[in-house]
Every structure is written in C-alpha cells, then in structure tokens.
Amino acid sequence: MIEIKNISKIYNENTVPVQALNEVNLRIEKGEFTAIVGPSGCGKTTLLNILGGLDTPSSGDILIDNANLHQRSSSEMIAFRRDHIGFVFQDYSLMPVLTARENVEFIMELQGKSKVERNSRSTELLTAVGIADKAEKLPNQLSGGQQQRVAVARALASKPKLILADEPTANLDSKSTTDLLDIMRQLNEKENITFVIATHDQRVMDRAKRVIRFDDGKIIEDEVSEKNQASSL
Ligand SMILES: Nc1ncnc2c1ncn2[C@@H]1O[C@H](COP(=O)(O)OP(=O)(O)OP(=O)(O)O)[C@@H](O)[C@H]1O
C-alpha cells in the first residue's frame, strides 16, 4: 500500500545542514499497526510529515496505492490529505472554539457533506471512542485523554485509509493510554485502517503489530510481533 523508496531529507535552514532521513526504504501494507521508534532527533516526525504530505523529501519517492504522493499539485495534495489521511498529534490540536462534535465534523464540512450526514457520522465516531456524552463540550472542558479521543474521532471523519499519529500518548496517563490503544487497535482490526505511530512509549510498542526502529535517519531494526497480530485481540 505505501512504498517508501530511497527517501532522504536534508534540512538546509541552518548554517549546518541536518540530514534527518538517509535513504530510507520501507513498505507498509494495508492494515498494519506499526510503531516508528528511536531516540529523539532520529527522524520519526520527519518521516510522518513526509508520509502525510505535510513536508517534501529532498530525494526519493513515496507511492501510496501505486500513485506518487509528491507528484501532486498543492491543491491535489490538500484534497488527498483531506480525503485519505487522518492525523493525530501529541498536543491533540483541536480547535478550541469548536465543540467535540464540531471538531469531528469540520473536515466533513470541507468535503461538502450534508448536516444530517455529518451529524450521524460524528455521533457514530464519538460513540466509537467512548465519549458520545461529551459531544457538546469544548476542548478545555475535556481531560487530555478525552481530547485525544476527539482527535482520533476527527482523524477518522473522512474515512481515511491511513492514520498517522505523532506521539499520540505522550501527554496521557496510563489508563487513558490503554483506552486509546484499545480504540485504535479495534479500528485497525474492524475497519482495516492502517496506523503508523511515531512514539517513545513502550506501551504503544507493546501493542504494535510491527516495530520499526530508527537511528540517525536510518532504519536499524524492523520487527513483526507475532503475539500482536489480529488473532490475539
Ligand atoms: N524544520 C527543521 N529545520 C531544521 N532541522 C530540523 C527541522 N525539523 C527537524 N529537524 C532536525 O531533523 C532531525 C530529525 O528530527 P525529527 O523531528 O524528525 O526527529 P524525531 O525522531 O521525531 O524526534 P523527537 O522524538 O524528539 O520528536 C533532528 O536533528 C532535528 O533537529
């Protein structure tokens, strides 16, 4: 599904260029639940940003379902991201003036979906992440764990094939982390959504089907966990 071919990224903004990714090759199949791990600065966020079309590689190609991601024009890229990729960030990144429901529905509004359709989908998603009763609350009326659940529901609103999550559990307590991982794994199993998660969190690694370890912009280990495949859920 996703083929990362010889991707390198060099940041030239400072006097000394930084090579964040160094000829990375990787194939991620549909339905994977993959953790990208490694020390701070090893290139995890850079990889996710390039995979999500938020940043461009210095060289190399990314193919998603055989189509070259970065050969799109900027308007095509915006539409592709909106329709096919969901993002979950460490700081939740919810819009503070919108309720949980409105945050979830925002992308559907951009897609031109009717109010009835938006409402039914947001109810379904907020129920799936266990906070339907908080639909009319603003983000600052919710706990961190609840806000991250809204962020996951929002990421799913456009029915994406791929969710990219950057340190989604970094600000969560243990119970919220377990709950969030349960929700993400269930979505992965039931709807075959591919998850790629950059993380330092051992609890995420323990639940991942595959753990890819980076160091200094390169893959140094790529391990599939037999115990975390679907049958063990
Ligand atoms: N916009 C930028 N300009 C210059 N250098 C950058 C930029 N973004 C990242 N870098 C550098 O690229 C390297 C990889 O950064 P990246 O954020 O991808 O690492 P990371 O593995 O996600 O780190 P962390 O775990 O701390 O989030 C680091 O050396 C970082 O300082």
From TrEMBL:
Query: Does Mitochondrion count among this protein's keywords?
Result: no
Q: What are this entry's molecular-function GO terms?
A: ATP binding; ATP hydrolysis activity; transmembrane transporter activity
Give the top-rank taxon of the lineage listed in the UniProt record for this protein.
Bacteria
Please give the family membership noted in the entry.
Belongs to the ABC transporter superfamily. Macrolide exporter (TC 3.A.1.122) family.
Q: Which UniProt keywords apply?
A: ATP-binding, Nucleotide-binding, Transport
Q: Can you cite an annotated GO cellular component?
A: membrane protein complex
Give the protein's recorded name: ABC transporter ATP-binding protein
Origin organism lineage: Bacteria, Pseudomonadati, Bacteroidota, Cytophagia, Cytophagales
Alphabetical list of PROSITE patterns matching this protein: ABC_TRANSPORTER_1, ABC_TRANSPORTER_2
Question: From which source organism is this entry?
Answer: Persicobacter diffluens
